[in-house]
Design a protein that fits this description.
Oligomer: single chain
Strand content: 15-25%
Number of helices: 7
Structural class: alpha+beta
Length: 201
């Protein structure tokens, strides 16, 4: 049931565009990270996060998918949400070795309906509402090497459903130009994150 609903909300053509955007974001992050010298490895992770958000938002616009940038419960962390057929999808870059993003209250809020999928007795209700929350989880050091759709349970302690997406060979990832203004905005964000991380030490 979940696989059919997700396929209806985010068909293969849409998923391919998501993966294409992620390939491009990782490539761009690697290029930009080199400007940070000895801090390149640390900056790369921040850049992968910011670039994936920016290019997935651009992708959603081009595909005419409903989307928006929302804030977490504390109001200090913006995050991208893409909506389709009563599913809400959020973007998550995780470090290598981690299979899911960290637990957070605002993510738990989105997972309330997901528990219905885990209980066969509630299958009719889940089908009726057709509402759920799915995470687009990706990782890689310099290049993208894993993309997975994860439907987490309410407490973020496990997954109700997981599906690995096919990684496309990024043969056309340079097909669109990226505005210099966007490059500058993301570089400044990464600089601020590095600066704050250094202060916290």
């Amino acid at each position: 049931m979940i696989d059919e609903q997700l396929l209806n909300a985010f068909p293969l053509s849409v998923r391919s565009e998501f993966v294409h955007s992620l390939h491009k974001s990782y490539e761009q992050a690697d290029v930009e990270a080199k400007q940070f010298g000895s801090f390149a490895n640390r900056a790369r992770g921040y850049l992968q996060h910011f670039w994936s958000d920016a290019l997935l938002e651009k992708c959603a616009k081009e595909l005419n998918l409903s989307h928006g940038v929302e804030l977490n419960r504390a109001g200090n962390t913006p995050f991208l949400v893409i909506r389709s057929s009563n599913w809400q999808l959020s973007n998550h870059h995780v470090t290598k070795g981690r299979r899911a993003p960290s637990k957070a209250l605002y993510r738990e809020h989105y997972t309330r309906m997901n528990d219905l999928f885990a209980d066969a007795a509630e299958a009719e209700i889940a089908t009726l509402h057709r509402h759920g929350y799915v995470q687009l989880v990706h990782s890689g050091e310099k290049l993208l090497d894993d993309v997975t759709l994860i439907v987490p349970n309410r407490n973020m302690t496990g997954a109700v459903y997981t599906e690995a997406l096919d990684l496309l060979v990024p043969v056309e990832t340079d097909r669109e130009e990226i505005p210099d203004q966007l490059k500058d905005q993301i570089r400044i964000k990464a600089e601020n994150m590095l600066r704050n991380a250094t202060k916290d030490r």
